TrEMBL record:
Protein source organism: Photinus pyralis
Record InterPro entries: CarboxyPept-like_regulatory, CARBOXYPEPT_ZN_1, CARBOXYPEPT_ZN_2, Peptidase_M14, Peptidase_M14_domain
Active site: 301 (proton donor/acceptor)
Top-level taxon of the source organism: Eukaryota
Keyword Hydrolase in record: yes
Cofactor needs: Zn(2+)
Entry keyword annotation includes Zinc: yes
Signal sequence annotation: 1-19
Family: Belongs to the peptidase M14 family.
Any GO molecular function: metallocarboxypeptidase activity
Protein's recorded name: Peptidase M14 domain-containing protein
Keywords: Carboxypeptidase, Glycoprotein, Hydrolase, Metal-binding, Protease, Signal, Zinc
Ranges in coiled-coil conformation: none
Residue ranges occupied by any Peptidase M14 domain in the UniProt entry: 34-331
Length: 433
């Protein structure tokens, strides 16, 4: 009897250790866990910049309705001076103010990267090779209106929405709304939305994670469709398989998300779903990133309870830490390079085309491009207004590494106007309103 009891106790201990991973040494931020309010967050990020001036720089993407900054902490080994071809990554959290786990995880992630740089080989490589931006709160007003311990949104969605009672994840341009015109694309939108649209378009982000709560799943575009349905029909992008791969890299490294059965009455195969297959979101930020910029964004729902007690935060960090690091590393999937003219000068706003995938990326003002791709063989070429199209290059993409492919374009006598970039961010009319 005593032997059976001892065996049972050992099994319980092992089971508990798997469901609640223990923190690694050096993660002192997990001691006495608490949520930081706006003022505390501001103070901490300013302290990070003071303590790590060579690694951290604080940016404001804009202001909330109540004039709080949308802080983004940049972390890079050459912060503020991005080396050529270094890709940009972003995590954004707390778009819904009462979904708070992701907000605190990004604060933890910032401290983890800064304190482990030069000590941990993986962190050092990541920071050396990636320009990382962490925005813990896109909706600081909503967060201040929310209450710890509330697992569901308040009546009238107070806290979820911004100060003007607008759901920010329904406030972006809807790609299927034919009534939106060029000169009015910013009209009537919330200050947080305008700030994010401008930030997304004005910087060459490659990959992004949008952290939410209320479920546990990795959800990829499209969130919307042209069917008029509310749910349950997949709406794939031209990069559907790539998005599945990006979502899976996070879900499979999350001990519970990968099961797909974390929250009551929810089942997601392998912990991932197409957004519209789950339920449709019209005017969401995830789709905006893909349609109007070079950035690929995936949404990660992290907890069944939207605003769990702070005592849950250390476990949430352990559940998500490996997933977050692996997702940042995915910024280096695929192909990157320079598009130049015959004199070696950068060609900006050139389209880089992967044959068979009708979604191009465009070059930065330095002539750089980054094209996320799964392992495989692709035919890729570059084209730009006023230049002859390059030859197609047959390129092998291998797992876990970046293939470099440069293109040199020759001027043409009669420019082909059809080669002009059609990305919203590179058209002057965007800035006219």
């Amino acid at each position: 009897m005593f032997r059976k009891l001892a065996i049972t106790i050992v099994i319980l201990i092992i089971s508990e250790s798997h469901s609640k991973p223990s923190p690694d040494n050096g993660e002192v931020f997990l001691t006495n866990p608490r949520y930081l309010n706006y003022d505390d967050l501001t103070t901490l990020f300013e302290k990070f910049v003071e303590d790590y001036p060579h690694l951290a720089k604080l940016h404001s993407a804009g202001k909330s309705v109540r004039h709080r900054d949308l802080w983004a902490l940049e972390i890079s080994s050459d912060v503020g001076n991005r080396p050529l071809l270094t890709p940009m990554f972003k995590f954004v959290a707390n778009m819904h103010g009462d979904e708070t786990v992701g907000r605190q995880l990004l604060i933890y992630l910032a401290e983890y990267l800064l304190t482990n740089y030069g000590r941990d080989e993986r962190v050092t490589k990541l920071v050396n090779g990636t320009d990382i931006y962490l925005m813990p709160s896109m909706n600081p007003d909503g967060f201040e209106n929310s209450e710890e311990g509330e697992c569901e949104s308040k009546p009238k969605y107070v806290g979820r929405t911004n100060e003007n009672a607008v759901d920010l994840n329904r406030d972006f341009p809807d790609q299927f709304d034919g009534s939106i015109r060029a000169g009015t694309i910013l009209s009537g939108r919330q200050p947080e939305t305008i700030a994010m649209m401008t930030w997304i378009i004005s910087r060459p982000f490659v990959l992004s994670g949008n952290l939410h709560g209320g479920a546990v799943v990795a959800s990829y575009p499209y969130d919307d469709s042209n069917t008029g349905r509310t749910c349950c029909k997949e709406s794939p992008t031209p990069d559907n398989e790539l998005f599945k791969g990006l979502a899976t890299i996070y879900a499979q490294r999350h001990p519970t998300m990968r099961t797909g059965r974390v929250c009551k009455n929810e089942h997601f195969v392998d912990g991932v779903t197409n957004g519209a297959l789950w339920y449709e979101v019209h005017g969401g930020m995830q789709d905006f990133n893909y349609v109007h910029s070079n950035c690929f964004e995936v949404t990660f729902e992290l907890s069944c309870c939207k605003y769990p007690p702070a005592s849950h935060l250390p476990n949430e960090w352990q559940l998500n830490k490996e997933s977050m690091l692996s997702f940042i590393e995915a910024t280096h999937w695929g192909v990157k390079g320079l598009v130049t003219n015959e004199n070696g000068e950068p060609v900006l706003d050139a389209d880089v085309v992967v044959e068979g995938i009708p979604h191009n990326v465009t070059t930065s003002n330095k002539g750089e491009y980054w094209r996320l791709l799964l392992p495989g063989v692709y035919n890729i070429y570059a084209t730009a207004y006023g230049y002859q199209r390059s030859e197609s290059e047959r390129i092998q993409v291998t797992k876990g590494s970046t293939t470099i492919q440069n293109f040199a374009l020759k001027l043409q006598r009669a420019p082909d106007k059809g080669n002009m970039s059609k990305k919203l961010g590179e058209s002057q009319w965007f800035w006219s309103s």
